[in-house]
Amino acid sequence: xxxxxxxxxxxxxxxxxxxxxxxxxxxxxxxxxxxxxxxxxxxxxxxxxxxxxxxxxxxxxxxxxxxxxxxxxxxxxxxxxxxxxxxxxxxxxxxxxxxxxxxxxxxxxxxxxxxxxxxxxxxxxxxxxxxxxxxxxxxxxxxxxxxxxxxxxxxx
Length: 156
Fold this sequence. Notes:
By secondary structure, this protein is of the alpha+beta class. The strands form two sheets. A five-stranded mixed β-sheet has the order 1-2-7-5-6, covered by helices on one side.
């Protein structure tokens, strides 16, 4: 039975995906005390990247913003795999977003807004967080964007 957070996802027309399997030697998420830390989540859908390339070159900022939303959904799936229930989220503490950027692209914050806005829409005030949005030369598998999330749990 889905909880309130998953019901909100459904209301928004979204489905929590399966956890993306690790690409190397790490776990998708780990819990330490009351916190869950996700590994960097790529915009994988059904085990594949729909889009590759640099934002500001092969990928538009609007496409990248949607991909950041997918990363945030994958992060929520990773959190659930550790916490058992997304309704245990007390708050999102921090989001770090990486944007594979063309050399003249400076709109990283707007791209990572895709993740931040999704978390806010799904979790309300619990989704408000601190954040970094960083431009990088390249990401794994030539992904345009990668997002990691730290959440605090209730009843850990």
